[in-house]
From TrEMBL:
InterPro entries given in the database record: GLR_AS, Glutathione_S-Trfase, Glutathione_S-Trfase_N, Thioredoxin-like_sf
PANTHER family: THIOREDOXIN FAMILY PROTEIN
Pfam families listed in its UniProt record: GST_N_3
Gene, per the UniProt record: LOC100384430
Provenance organism: Zea mays (Maize)
Gene3D superfamilies: Glutaredoxin
Protein name: Thioredoxin family protein
Chain positions covered by the region annotation Disordered: 29-67
Low complexity bias: start-end ranges: 29-49
Domain GST N-terminal: 138-220
Length: 340
């Protein structure tokens, strides 16, 4: 029998509680259960040996592109402009972490092995309140899709709180994770959050935002996420520049491990990549890295440069920057029926 539900904070609607999951010993162990499509019933005895897992590899002739700062690939301009529409409509929510505070300093004040935005002859020292907030030991899990304005609200809060989140994409007609949400929570409603650190699972974007703020922030909710109907309207308008994108399913092969992505909600380049991840129903572990995030330094230390988005695909070993090339890579690697 499942353990009794933990008490609910008075400001939440009554959430659905799930038993706490066993602690994962490694990322691969966690991933083993996340992305496999529902298999036929094999309860009947069979003498045939099980089929080996499908192997994934980069497309033929694939070459990791060199990162290029502030460069838009030819033919991508209209897509980027459409994705940029969200920034003024949402007043930059999701671009900065909680308590973000920048200041111009002399380049000598920031060591060359530390990430810093350069601004003319100065560097930008970025500070925030994130270091004072509780961090989840295991990634929070969210079932959602890119074109949903209520899902966008939650993703913005994820960026503000600098959280790592395991996203399960639920595009329309997606065969894998939409049915899973119905099975777990009783409704095909999005977003749906599961926090394996506390055992809490819930629907309703405003409830999820408040829960995240209370559990992993300082309890405050950004103004653009606390305006009720106006928040919902502007979040909906923010999708118009990319209307229809990141909504519908494209037949794909789901790999055994989630793709890792360093990205944040306010970036138009990150949005274009997430649209593809969602349409292909590819689970992805987001390392949120809005302005002020210490995760920018993690990427800078590994690669000698920071740009977002950046992905690491443990299924193929590919590590790469550049949004347009990432999109091409994902489609070439995971689309089930390639056009000739």
């Amino acid at each position: 029998m499942a353990p009794p539900a933990a008490p609910t904070a008075p400001h939440h609607r009554t959430p659905l509680f799930l038993p706490r999951r066993a602690a994962a010993t490694a990322r691969a162990a966690r991933a083993a259960s996340l992305a496999v499509r529902a298999q036929p019933n094999t309860a009947a005895a069979s003498t045939s040996a099980p089929e080996p897992p499908e192997k994934f590899k980069p497309p033929p002739g694939f070459k990791v592109p060199e990162p290029k700062r502030f460069e838009i690939k030819s033919g991508q301009q209209s897509s980027v402009l459409g994705a940029l529409l969200a920034i003024p409509l949402r007043l930059g929510t999701g671009v900065f972490v909680l308590g973000y505070s920048p200041s111009l300093v002399s380049p000598s004040e920031i060591p060359s092995d530390q990430y810093a935005l350069e601004f003319g002859a100065w560097k930008v020292k970025e500070e925030s309140k994130i270091g004072q907030c509780k961090r989840p030991e295991k990634p929070i899990e969210i079932y959602e899709f890119e074109g949903c304005p209520f899902c966008r609200k939650v993703r913005e809060m994820v960026s503000v709180l600098d959280l790592d989140v395991l996203f399960y994409p639920c595009p329309r007609k997606g065969p894998t994770f939409r049915p899973k949400v119905l099975e777990m929570g009783g409704k095909k409603q999005f977003p749906y959050m599961v926090d394996p650190n506390t055992g809490v699972a819930m629907y309703e974007s405003d409830d999820i935002i408040k829960y995240l703020a209370d559990t992993y922030g300082d309890g405050s909710v950004p103004i653009m996420l606390s305006l009720g109907l106006l928040t919902a309207i502007t979040a909906g308008l923010a999708t118009l520049g990319r209307i229809g994108k990141g909504n519908s399913y494209t037949a794909s092969r789901i790999p055994p491990q989630p793709i890792e992505i360093w990205a944040f909600e306010g970036s138009p380049f990150c949005r274009l990549v997430r649209e593809t991840l969602v349409e292909l129903e590819l689970p992805h572990l987001l390392h949120s890295c809005a302005r002020g995030s210490l995760k920018r330094q993690e990427v800078f230390k590994k690669k000698g440069v920071f740009q977002a988005p950046y992905i690491e695909d443990p299924n193929t070993g590919v590590q790469m920057f550049e949004s347009a090339e990432i999109i091409d890579y994902l489609k070439a690697t995971y689309v089930l029926y390639q056009s000739s």
